[in-house]
Amino acid sequence: MKPKLTNPKSIQVGLLGIGTVGSGVFNVLQRNQGEILRRAGRGIEIAMVADLDTARAQAAVGKDVQVVADARAVIANPEIDVVVELIGGYGIAKQLVLEAIEAGKHVVTANKALLAVHGTEIFAAASRKGVMVAFEAAVAGGIPIIKSLREGLTANRIEWVAGIINGTTNFILSEMRDKGLDFDVVLKEAQRLGYAEADPTFDIEGVDAAHKVTLMSAIAFGIPVQFDKAYVEGITKLGAQDIKYAEQLGYRIKLLGITKKTAKGIELRVHPSLVPAKRLIANVEGAMNAVMVHGDAVGTTLYYGKGAGSEPTASAVIADLVDIARLHTSDPLHRVPHLAFQPDSMSDAPVLAMGDVVTSYYLRLNVADEAGVLAKVTGILAEAGISIDAVLQREADEVGGEGSTQTDLIILTHDCVEAKMNEAIAQMQALPTVLAPITRIRKEELN
Amino acid sequence: MKPKLTNPKSIQVGLLGIGTVGSGVFNVLQRNQGEILRRAGRGIEIAMVADLDTARAQAAVGKDVQVVADARAVIANPEIDVVVELIGGYGIAKQLVLEAIEAGKHVVTANKALLAVHGTEIFAAASRKGVMVAFEAAVAGGIPIIKSLREGLTANRIEWVAGIINGTTNFILSEMRDKGLDFDVVLKEAQRLGYAEADPTFDIEGVDAAHKVTLMSAIAFGIPVQFDKAYVEGITKLGAQDIKYAEQLGYRIKLLGITKKTAKGIELRVHPSLVPAKRLIANVEGAMNAVMVHGDAVGTTLYYGKGAGSEPTASAVIADLVDIARLHTSDPLHRVPHLAFQPDSMSDAPVLAMGDVVTSYYLRLNVADEAGVLAKVTGILAEAGISIDAVLQREADEVGGEGSTQTDLIILTHDCVEAKMNEAIAQMQALPTVLAPITRIRKEELN
Asked: Can you tell me which family this protein belongs to (chains A, B) (predicted)?
């Protein structure tokens, strides 16, 4: 069966940058062109590619596609309908995206950093010119989470979103748990296997996840992108013993990007979190991603898949191209708004400072193994109005070896406001019987 | 902040039937009207409701909404843009949907039975009239699985879809496993709790799941809906001991709707399946739904949430209404095709008979506890070219009590074609040492 063209004019696409993701886009479009044509009703063709390494680019796309070194030649080409930006970063990518919009091109990008920081400016420019800026590939790779949030759950007042949205850190945490190893050891292994970059800072410090959760907070709640207000804490200080203790208490530790609507404002935060082991998301292992969305009508939903890689990310880029193929002739007012809500209907709900966030906690205190320590510690928490959910006290011998005079005291608390917890931790830290810096990991029930 | 209207004309909706789902649609639209308006750029209003029980209907929607007993009065009303069909079944619902299409109304329906059986006729009528027939609510309640398959994964050659798409049976299987109880006992409990209907046939015999997987097969592969070709097997014959043995072998038993593209044709089947316990979908408990989709570019993705209930289903109905509000002024050729592929580009790949399906198996044979039985059974399998993955032989005492002369022999096989397995089972059944009907459950690795 030969696919027929509903509309004989193919969408002409210009790629800016053809590395891992760009090659994936080219290869998948080639391989599945029949299938995609049968869905979209018109072809989608990569007509031009800009890359500084023209030789490598030409080798990737073959001799039938025009390759240039100058991205502006793509933007200036009147035949090009859509510009796909795969350069990354905030620098030249921002300039080129704005120029493409100014030239009346629709834009598809996988650049979460750019949109999380400069999205307000970029989406406003796109609205003025009546073009689409699509970014499914910017969050959770091939999982259609942007579409689900922006179109699939439109009936709902979204209450919270929580996701494993960085594969590198989830791989590291899975390995730490499986093998009982410390962070540094596993990071080196992850680098060797290609799961972590040579400079892994953006991943392990939580910055990449914060870019992504910033985008999700905007489309979930109809607020502007506000990366600068996100609380960001990575996984570099996690010890193997905390993963083990969490396990004993029925929890796993995951790096979550969380955004939540409360009466006081919007929570926007990335940090390691204890999650009940029985939740599906606690069982997402290796480099996989998963995002939970809780809406008032639908309840809790979850979306799982590969969050990175050449073809999973290409899957999202091409889905955006098909959307554009379907919608680009329609009235801009009838398209899906960039940030899910109409630009004139954005909310001014403030993003809360971390001190104002309410959550529950896991605390690990390395204490002297003597009478009265637990009473002092729990006294401080009681004084602060923080109630205790569970206490796990280790035998000194198990923690410090035979004859040890110190031990670990693990406390799970109920919900309290972070500022109060900060004060309580400072007071506990000042006790002479507390022998090392207190470890504090937030706990999310996600039900 | 007061939401502003991008377009002052609200979409006028007529509901046919206002039971559980209809009330949910009305209540969620009321409660979240500000949020929905900010997203859609125009209001969505229920202007008219038809229900035979007009008094109950009027009580549900209040006095500002016109209530009639005659559904045709809604269809005839020129003010109505969209008709939402929530009557269910193949009878009058089919007639009314066709009449609404003929009257130029867009249609939203949660009626999987209707679309799985009469979808070809209904979608053809809608294409002729240039109206949309949206059915997100027909599969997996509030989970946006239709949108994900039809729009989110357009880049992919979909290879298979497998889902827990019937909450009643998943609740029953979860309870059987948790409590070690037999099917009949748990069914009664499920009926008492409202998880199963008074006449649960459609659920427990797999018919409801088959309706849903039929719809997913069409949009995944671009084939017509072909419910009559689906293989359908329910959970009524599952014993508690099979769930226990599966567990010992590292598997859970779930009722899956499966559709898969193979070189010979499309598999379309519903039956209990062993699934590795470590898969996320094996851990979907109670009345929850989850659908796995495997695409060649994106790999395996999973979508999880509530598959039924008033507001989760309403969430899907309203998402469709917002899509229609956004797209109804656009050229029909640019909309998302009803079955994901352009109507002139459907595939004629055949749906395979169950005998032609290739899968692996769990077999339980109740056998005489004497020498040579295992050799005879495995000899038959070897003769048929079916290779064995694992064997679990129980002590006779454990199975039949002290002094018992019979025992259970459990065999896991590798992949083979079902027709061959049928022959082998017939031969094994004929052995005098095989004392009871052989239990056969299919096994899916889902990786």
From this structure: Belongs to the homoserine dehydrogenase family.
Q: How many CB atoms lie within 10 A of CB A374?
A: 15
- Write down the CATH number for the domain with range A358-443: 3.30.70.260
Query: Does A414 lie at the interface with B, CB-CB under 8 angstroms?
Result: no
Q: What pLDDT, on a 0 to 100 scale, did the predictor assign at position B8? A: 64
Range name among A222-231, B128-137, B336-345 with the lowest pLDDT average: B336-345
Query: In a mutagenesis test of the B interface, which of A28, A322, A334 is the best target, namely the one with the most B β-carbons within 10 Å?
Result: A334
Fold of B11-144+311-345: Rossmann fold (3.40.50)
Instruction: Please indicate whether residue B8 or residue A353 has the higher confidence score (pLDDT).
Output: A353
Q: Which of B142, B153, B331 sits opposite A298 (nearest CB)?
A: B142
Whether residue A212 lies in the annotated active site? yes
Q: What is the pLDDT of residues A77-92, one digit of tens each?
A: 999 999 999 999 989 9
Query: Coil, strand or helix: which one is B217?
Result: helix
CATH class of the region B145-305: alpha beta
Which residues numbered 332-351 in A keep a CB inside 8 Å of some CB on B? 333-337, 340-342, 344-345, 347-348
Q: What is the tens place of the pLDDT at every residue in A286-304?
A: 999 999 999 999 999 999 9
Q: Where are the beta strands (DSSP E) in B7-145?
A: 11-16, 44-50, 66-68, 82-85, 106-109, 133-134
- Considering chain B, what percentage of its residues have pLDDT values greater than 70? 98
Q: Cα B272 from chain centroid?
A: 13
**Which CATH architecture group holds A145-307?**
2-Layer Sandwich (3.30)
Question: Mapping DSSP to helix (H, G, I), strand (E, B) and coil, where does residue A388 land?
Answer: strand
* Chain A CB within 8 Å of residue B297 CB: yes
CA triple A67-A70-A71, angle to 5 deg: 90
Residue range A8-14: mean pLDDT, rounded = 90
Tell me, what's the pLDDT at B5? 42
Give the 3-state secondary structure of residue A286: coil
CA B259 to each of CA A431, B220, B238, B345: distance values in angstroms, whole numbers, following the listed order = 63, 9, 22, 20
Report, as an integer, the average pLDDT of A224-244. Answer: 96
Share of chain A above pLDDT 90, in %: 90
Chain A, chain B: beta-carbon pairs less than 8 Å apart: 255
Closest-CA residue to B221 (of B296, B157, B163):
B157
- 3-state secondary structure (DSSP) of residue A238: coil
- pLDDT value at A198 more than 60: yes
| B 267-296 residues inside an 8 A Cβ radius of A | 278, 280, 283-284, 295-296
Residues near B379 by beta carbon (within 8 Å), at least 6 away in sequence: none
Q: Where are the domains of chain B?
A: 11-144+311-345, 145-305, 358-443
Give per-residue pLDDT as tens, B173-214: 999 999 999 999 999 999 999 889 999 999 999 999 999 999
